[in-house]
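Extended Data, panel c. Modelled sequence:
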Amino acid sequence: MAPAEAVEFRILGPFEVLSDGRPLPLGRGQERVLLAVLLLYRNERVSTDRLVDLLWDESPPESAPKMIQIYVSRLRRRLATTADTDRRLVTQPAGYSLRVEPDELDLDRFERLCDEGRKALAAGDPALAVPRLREALSLWRGPPLADIADGRFLEQERARLQELRLDAREERIDADLALGEGAALVDELQALVRDHPLRERPAAQLMLALYRSGRQADALATYTEARDRLVDELGIEPGRPLKQLEQAILRQDPALDAPAREQMFASETAAPESRPRRLPRWPMAVTAAAAIAIAAAAGIAIALSGNERGQVRLSADAVGVVRDGRLVDQAPVGVAPAVIAANREGIWIASTVAGTVSRLDPKTFEVRQTIPVGSGPSGIAVGRGAVWVTNGLDGTVSRIDPKANKVVQTIQVGNGPAAIAYGLRSLWVANRIDQTVSRIDPRTGNVLDTLAAGTDAAAIAAGEGAVWVVDQARGRVARLEPGFTEPALAVNVGNGPSAIALGAGSVWVANALDSTVMRIDPRSNSVIATILVGAGPNSLVVARDGIWVGNEHDGTLWRVNPKTNLIDRKVRLGQRPEAIARAGSGVLVAVGPSAASHRGGTLRLAASSFPYGSIDPTNFGSPSAVILTNDGLTGFRRVGGVEGTQLVPDLAVSLPAPMDGGTTYTFRVRRAIRYSDGRLVRPEDFRRALRRSFIIAHNAFFYSAIVGAKECAASPERCDLARGITVDDRSWTVTFHLRATDPDFLLKLALPFAYAVPAGTPNRDVRTRPVPATGPYQVTAYRPGRFLELARNPRFQVWSAAAQPAGYADRIVWRLQVRPAAQVAAVESGKTDVAFDGVPPDREAEVSTRYASQVRDDPIPRTTFAFLNTRVSPFDDVRVRRAVSYAADRAAFVSAVGGPDRAQPKCQVLPPNFPGYRPYCPFTLRPGPSGVWSQPDVPKARRLIAASGTRGAKVTVWIPANRRPEGRLLVTLLSQLGYRTRPKYVGSNAYPTIADPRLRIQAGVLSWVADYPAASNFIAFFFRCPAQAPGANTNPSQFCDPRIDTQIKVAFGLEATDPAIAGSLWSQLDREIVDQAPMVPLVNPKQVDFLSSRVGNYEYNPQLGMLLDQLWVR
C-alpha cells in the first residue's frame, strides 16, 4: 500500500491545496468556488440546490445542477491521491460532502491555536498564550480566499474570517500587555486603530501602551479621539471600561505600570531549554478591553527565557561584531551602510547613498579603503577571489579586485539589479525591474544566461542544487534549476519576504510583514517550519552557531537553533539593523543612521521657479512638494535605490487584484485618516479628485480607460463619473470600472492627478491656495516667484512608513526666482541647503572637485531626443531619418548639457535601467554587441541623404526654451547634411502645440521623463497609431506602423500576465522603432544635486528623485 500523502487545504490567503507540499491544480472559475464552499461546509452534507444558490446567487443557469456534477467529477480527479481510494468528495443523497481530517485545513489549525491561546490567557498564563496566538496569526498569508471570484456567500465568509483574525490579533496584544509590553506595541496599535476606528478594544490597548511608554498626554488624546469618532459617526458615548481606563490614567493608577525590570528577566544563566515560569492567575472581572488591559497590567511579571542576552549599544552608521550575544567590536563607516559581506581579505560594506564600498580590516576593524562603484549599490557577494556589487540604479555589477582595491570590471546585467549571490560555480543576479536572473561566469565576467524569474526578484541565494529567488510582491520563493530558462516551481511563503539564506540543509526565508522565518526543505520544496521572530525581519544569515535574523522595527537580532527551530538568543542593538553577515564565529551587523536624533530644524532650498506657478496637484508642477503634502490610493516606496520603484498601497489598505478580466479594481480605503483641516478622508474623495482633474485639463489623459472618463473631459458640465467610479461608505471602498484592461492602472493612480481632495475643493486650479493635506507636511505659505513654505501637518500620523514616512525637518522652505549660479553660491555660503536646479555646466567641474562629498549625481528615467515628422518631407523617407541618427554627434550633445557628469550619449527610446531596456545602438561608427555609441558615422549619413534626393530641402526646427543648447546643435547638424535649416523658438510648455499633427511640424527637440516605471509610458505613449490623431498630441513624429502597433497592444496585455515576456517584447519594439528612426534619441540626462555640509541622509529614488523629507539638517 502506498504511503499516505499529506494534504493541506489553505484558505487563509490565496486559495491553495497542497499534496506533500506541492500545489495541486484547482481548475478555474466556479470549479474553484465549489471547492471553497465545500471546505467552508467541510464534513457536512451540502445539498445540490444549496450549492447552486451559493455559486450563482439569484441567477443560476438552467444547467446549473449538471454543471455541479461536472465540477464535482473534475475535483475528484484533482483531489484523488495514491492513498485516497475512498475519495474525499463523497456523493450523498441530493448533495455532496468533503471529508477533511483534523488540521488539514489551515482555518481549523488557526481556530485550534486561538482556542489554546485564549485558554492560556484565561488561566493567567500569557507567556503561553502569546506563542499560540502568534503561531495562529502566522497561518494567514493575505486576505482569505483572495483569488476566488466574488459572490454574496463568499463575501460574508471573508468578512467573518477577517473578524476572527482581528479578534486573534487583539487577544495576542492583550497577552503582550499582560507580559508588560508597552512601547513596542504602539506602532502596531496606531495602525490597528486607524484601520478599525470604531472598535474600543484597540483604542484601550493603545492607551495603555502609550501610558507605559511615558506618553500620558498621547494616551489621553487617544481617548479623546476615540470618543469623538464614536460620537460623530455613531452618536454614542464610549463604553464604561474605556471611560474607566481614562480615569485610571488620569490618576496614574499603579495597576497600569509594567512589571519591574527585575521581574521581567530571568537569570541569564538559565538553561536555553528552560520554560518561562507560569504566572499567577489574575482576575478578569470585566471582559471589555479596557478592564482586560488594567488587569493585565496589575502585578503581572514574565520571566523571559534566559537566552535573552540584554542589550548591546551600536553607534549610528556603524558595523559591529556580535559573538555569543555580546558586542566584541565595532567601527563607524561614515556613510549609511546598506549591504555587507566578508572574506579573509576584509569586511565589505556597500552604501546605496554614497555609491561606494568601504573595506574594513578584519583584525583591526579600521576602514582601509573606500572604493567608488556604480549608482545605487544594492547587493554584495564575495567569491572566486573578488567582491561583486550590484548597482541598482544603473543596471551593472562592479567587480572589485581586493588586491588592487578598485573596480576592475563593470558588467551590464538586467534592469534594477537588487541582489547577488555566489554559488553553483556562478554568480546570480536578481534583476528586480526585469523580473529576471542574470548568470555570470566569475572567471570572465561574461553574462552566460538570462533566466525568467517570474517574480519581482527582491533577494537571491544559490545552493542546495538550485537558485532561489524571493518574490516579495506575491509572497513566494521561485526555484530555478541551472540549465533551464524558467522557474521549476514556486513555494508559497509568508507576507513580504525580504531575505533568504541557505544552510543546515534548508532554505530560510524572512517574512517582513508576518515577523516570521520559514524553513523550506529543498528536497520536498515545502515549508517545514514557521518560526516567530522579532518585528520586521529584513536580513538573514546562516552562521556557525545558528541562523541569525535582523529585525528592523524593534532593533534586535534573534538566533534560531536549526536543531529545534526555536529561538535561543535575542540581542537588542539600540539601532535598526540594515544588514548582517557571517564573520568567523560571530555575526557582522551593519546599522544605519539614528533617526530619533535628527528630527527637527528647517531645510532651506533655492530654485528658479515651480512650473506653471501653481501648487495644485492637477498641474503636477511641483511633484517634490506634492508628494509630501498629499496622497493617492497607491504610491511608490519612499526609499532610495532600486527598491523605490516598488508600488505600495498608500491611502488604500492593500493593492487589489484586478477582477472581471482586468477591468475592475476595488480598493479598501484606510479609515480614520484626516486632512489637515480635520475632515475625514472618504472614498468619494478619489472620484472627486479625478473628476476635478478631467474638468480642469479637459483631457482624461492617463485615465481614459475609466468608464465615462472621456465623456467627462469632453463635457465637464455633465461630468460625474458615477458609472466609472463607484463608492461604498459602508464598506469604505472605492471601485474603478474600466472600458478595457490597463495593466498600468495602479501605477497611474500613484500620480498627483488622483490624489484625494475633500468636498468643497473648487473645480479649477487653486494656484496659490493649497488643498488640505494628508501627508506629513502642509503648505503654510506660497507666493509665486518668491517662496514656498511647508510645515508639519499636525493631524498626520504614519499609516505606512513605506508609502508616506514621517519627515525629519520641521519646515521645508523654497526661495524662488533664484538663478542656478546664485543657488550654488548660497549653498557654498551656508545660506541654503539644496541647490534645487543642480549645478550650472560652467561650474560643474569646480563644484564637483571642491565639494565632492556634497555633490550627488544619479540617472533619471529621461530621454532627450530629436523628433522627425514621418509624414512630412524630407523625413517621410526612412533613409533621411537614419542619416540624421548616424550623423548625430551625441558627445557634442552631452557637452551641450553639461558634460559626462550631466548626461550620457543615447541611441534608444527607453532609458537605461528601465523596464524593457537592452543596450542597442546601430547608428554609430562600427556598431557592436555592447550597444554603446562611440562616434558619428557622417560618411554613411551623407550617402543616405544623396540616395534620398532631398538635399537642399527647407527644414524648420522647433526649439522649446528649455532645450535651446540641444536645438541649436540639431540645426547645425541638419545644415551640415545639406538642408536649408532655420530654428523656430517657442516656450518651454509648447509640447501640446508641437505634437499637433495639423501643424505638420517637420522636426524639433524634446525631452521626456517617465511618469511611472513602465515601458509603455515611452513606447505606447509616443508610437501607437492613435497617439498621432488630432487632439491626442502625444506623437510628434506622427509615426504609425500597423505591425508595430499590434505588437504594442500584445506587449501591453502581457504586462499583467507575464511581465518577463512583456519586457522582452518591449525590448524588441524599442529596437524596431530605433531602426525606423522616427525619433533620434540623443542623451540621457542625470540628476545632479548640490547639498550644504549640514545636510545628511541623502536618498535618491529613481521615480521620485531626491527625497526631501528624508534629508535632515544638523
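The mean pLDDT is 87. This feature is highlighted in the accompanying rendering.
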